[in-house]
Write a structure and sequence with these properties.
The protein is an alpha+beta fold. It folds into three domains: 7-122, Butyryl-Coa Dehydrogenase, subunit A, domain 1; 124-232, Butyryl-CoA Dehydrogenase, subunit A, domain 2; 251-382, Butyryl-CoA Dehydrogenase, subunit A, domain 3. It is 51% helix and 15% strand. It has helices at 7-24, 28-34, 39-47, 66-80, 83-103, 106-118, 234-250, 252-271, 283-312, 317-341, 353-360, 370-382; strands spanning 123-126, 142-146, 149-160, 167-173, 184-190, 196-201, 212-223, 227-228, 273-274, 277-278. The protein binds flavin-adenine dinucleotide.
Length: 385
């Protein structure tokens, strides 16, 4: 058994942290306050080869495995302290580009992946609708056959990158008669396609530098060459795989956020004095730091284990859901402890820890809520379908 990262992975981690400290961290607080996605910064991610990490080199990516991709997201979040940018990048990589590599035709891969990997194009994925999120089988967006193509109608919401995306992967119902979960098909729709409109922008409490919006499809016609994967198989084949990437890789940014919050809390506890001594010397404070460290390491281990299983091609649905639920719980509790250690200053926007909790809270919602992870875990435990 070897828990160590390779020398190459350690050097990569350090390089990405360094890049994030120089390029991402400056202005992160302002981007949060303004709810501003920074396209110039995105382009720098592209120049660093970070927009195509898990995609094969043939298509312009880096060919990184799941562990290494997660490592990069962790490093960026730790060094850059901009959870919104990480949300945009994570979605672009794991639910924007990856499904195209996994399920696209060779023509789709060649057309879209090099542009996505360079950062020239931004990817997105839409399954959630205003009336249904967790119950993915209940979506009502439809795709009706029309000659040699399809006509899409419906509204998606909570689309990460929606306002800035160039490519939207959309899951629609193609067979209204099919049983729950069946009869859904995915399509890749390019920005500018008539009938595709980016709807209302959502004003979020955290991850504010990542733009989120509705996406409205009104008689949006696409050719059959825009179909992604098999007809009728989108839920099991495309969407569930996306959720798996979110749970084993994308969530790594929350681990980087936790590491950063812990470092900030340690530094503050050592320099802030009360009753004549540094607050770190009060056990009530130092035990919070210890709890934060335990949560960080257990989250990191569980997540890397799930990603490692994924890289080995071994079953990991249970580990992915456990990691997702655990990281979410730990990230929010540690952010809250971080604020508590900062006292009143933790509640003031001048201190980055203030946004840590707002950012961390998303971890229990996006990519399947914590309740849904527990549904998955308990079903597997009980041997239920
Ligand atoms: C910032 C952000 C970005 C997002 N990005 C994307 C994106 O890019 N693409 C996309 O398609 N979606 C995206 N989502 C949507 C996200 O995946 C959904 O919000 C999530 O799946 C929950 O769906 P919902 O909001 O409709 O809640 P609901 O499904 O209505 O759930 C409401 C509550 O009921 C609970 N609940 C529901 N069913 C069960 C059950 N069976 N057992 C126990 N409890 C249950 C939930 O856990 C939750 O607490 C994003 C969401 C946010 C907030």
């Amino acid at each position: 058994m070897d828990f160590a990262l390779s020398d190459e992975q350690q050097a990569f981690y350090a390089t990405v942290v360094d890049f994030a400290q120089r390029a991402v961290e400056p202005g992160a607080g302002a981007r949060d306050r303004e709810g501003r996605f920074d396209r110039t910064l995105w382009d720098r991610l592209g120049e660093q080869g970070l927009c195509g990490l898990p995609i094969a080199e043939t298509y312009g990516g880096s060919g990184a495995d799941a562990v290494t991709t997660g490592l990069a997201l962790e490093a960026l979040a730790y060094g850059g302290h901009d959870a919104g940018l990480l949300l945009s990048l994570g979605a672009h990589l794991t639910i924007g580009a990856k499904p195209i590599e996994l399920h696209g035709t060779e023509e789709q891969r060649r057309r879209y992946l090099p542009r996505l990997c360079s950062g020239e194009w931004i990817g997105s994925f839409g399954i959630t609708e205003p009336d249904t999120g967790s119950d993915t089988a209940a979506i009502t967006t439809s795709a009706r056959r029309d000659g040699d193509g399809w006509v899409l109608n419906g509204t998606k919401t909570f689309i990460t990158n929606g306002p800035v995306a160039d490519l939207f992967t959309v899951v629609a119902r193609t067979d209204p008669q099919a049983s729950a979960g069946a009869g859904m098909t995915a399509f890749v729709v390019e920005r500018g396609t008539p009938g595709l409109a980016v709807g209302a922008r959502l004003d979020k409490m955290g991850n504010r530098s990542s733009p989120t919006s509705e996406m409205v499809l009104t008689d949006c016609r696409v050719g059959d060459e825009q179909r992604l994967g098999d007809e009728g198989a989108a839920l099991w084949q495309v969407a569930f795989e996306c959720f798996d990437w979110e749970r084993t890789v994308m969530i790594a940014s929350a681990v980087g956020g936790m590491a950063r919050t812990l470092d900030d809390a340690v530094a503050y506890a050592k320099q802030r004095s009360a009753f004549g001594k540094p607050i770190a010397q009060f056990q009530a404070v130092s035990h919070k730091l210890a709890d934060m460290r335990i949560r960080l390491e257990t989250s990191r281990l569980l997540l890397r284990y799930a990603a490692w299983l994924k890289d080995q091609g071994r079953p990991h649905q249970l580990e992915a859901s456990m990691a997702k639920a655990h990281v979410a719980e730990c990230a929010t509790r540690s952010a809250e402890d971080g604020i508590q250690i900062h006292g009143g200053w933790g509640y003031i926007k001048d201190f980055p820890v203030e946004r840590a909790w707002r950012d961390a809270k998303l971890t229990s919602l996006g990519g399947g809520t914590t309740e849904i992870q527990k549904v998955v875990i308990s079903r597997l435990l009980l041997g239920e379908p």
